[in-house]
Design a protein that fits this description.
With 333 residues, the chain is an alpha/beta fold. The chain contains 11 helices and 12 strands. Residues 2-56 form the HTH lacI-type domain.
Length: 333
């Protein structure tokens, strides 16, 4: 395997000059640069990424920690992050803790030990805060939420607005009996979406029925169980706000099992606009989270933080919007 010393010997220059050309760390004349690069190509020289990272004190690597994986929303965000990392010549190390506090702690330690240039942190688990003791001293961006106080840039979704828009859409279609299947209300996102639901009902002067509020989790099974609970009520809602598309998918299945159809017997609006939503039968009306924009903004913000570590932390808010499809019926006056 060729080394810088081999290149320097053949090009008849110093090893330091070869290093400056390859690493771009000092001005070298065009003539000298081309002479050295010709030898580099001839020897098919491949610089050591490890040695380069030690020299430049950068690994061109970003770590991303996600605490849950059973929701396709996260997979789509990760795909966007990977794409924008590649566009900026960065590698991505992804770790998934599945809500396990020990795995979270060890994953953070692993990423820091690997000397990643920065961290993207995406958490959904409130119970992790008590067990998390590792301080994060490298550039970081929080995506949506993190269980402990952290000096970092934050990119948040206006989840209360999203809950408000979803409920308002159902109201605009003539529905007044509107149920909701939430996520775990210990999670800020779930509570915010519920608050948005309550705000829209209050604004429309529609009484709140506590029996139509079902606390659940952001997964498929919870949609199944949540819809079963709503169907057991003496008076059923005509429409349901499922606080994630995964909940909506489970709700669809429960309605199918009861030989009920969407939207004839029950209207449903979801949240997230995962790719699967448009392929359901009927296609799911949902609140769109700008996942590609979230991934792009997270990478760009982190790279800016890596370049300017002393810059004041920022909080950026992404706005949701309703995507109208065929799962909500319009009721006559």
């Amino acid at each position: 395997m060729a080394t810088m010393k081999d290149i320097a010997r053949i090009a008849q220059v110093s090893t330091s000059t070869v290093s400056h050309v390859i690493n771009g760390t000092r001005f070298v004349s065009d003539e000298m640069r081309e002479k050295i690069m010709a030898v580099v190509r001839e020897l098919n020289y491949q610089p050591s990424a490890l040695a380069r990272s030690f020299k430049l004190k950068k690994t061109q690597t970003i770590g991303m920690l996600v605490t849950a994986s059973n929701n396709p929303f996260f997979a789509e965000v990760v795909a966007a992050v990977e794409g924008y990392c590649a566009q900026n010549d960065y590698n991505l190390i992804l770790t998934n803790t599945n809500g396990d506090s020990q795995r979270l702690q060890s994953s953070l330690q692993m990423l820091i030990q690997k000397q990643v240039d920065g961290l993207l942190l995406m958490s959904t688990e409130t119970h992790l805060a008590e067990q998390l003791s590792l301080e994060i001293s490298i550039p970081a961006v929080v995506m949506d939420w993190w269980p402990t106080a952290l000096s970092a840039d934050k990119i948040l979704e206006d989840s209360e607005l999203g809950g408000y828009l979803a409920t308002k859409y159902l109201l605009e279609q003539g529905h007044r009996k509107i149920g909701i299947i939430t996520g775990n209300l210990q999670k800020p996102l779930a509570l915010n979406r519920l608050n948005g639901y309550k705000k829209a009902l209050s604004e429309a002067q529609v009484p709140l029925n506590p029996h139509w509020i079902v606390e659940s989790h952001f997964d498929f099974e919870s949609g199944i169980v949540g819809m079963e609970k709503l169907l057991q009520q003496k008076e059923r809602p005509t429409a349901v706000f499922a606080c994630s598309d995964t909940i909506a998918v489970g709700a669809y299945q429960t309605l199918w099992k009861h030989q009920l159809s969407v939207p004839k017997d029950m209207s449903i609006i979801g949240y997230d606009n995962i790719d699967l939503a448009q392929y359901l039968a009927p296609p799911l009306t949902t609140v769109h989270q700008p996942k590609i924009e979230l991934g792009k903004l997270a990478v760009e913000t982190l790279l800016e933080r890596i370049k300017n570590p002393e810059k004041t932390n920022r909080t950026l808010i992404l706005k949701p919007e309703v995507i109208s499809r065929s799962s909500v019926a319009r009721l006559s006056e």
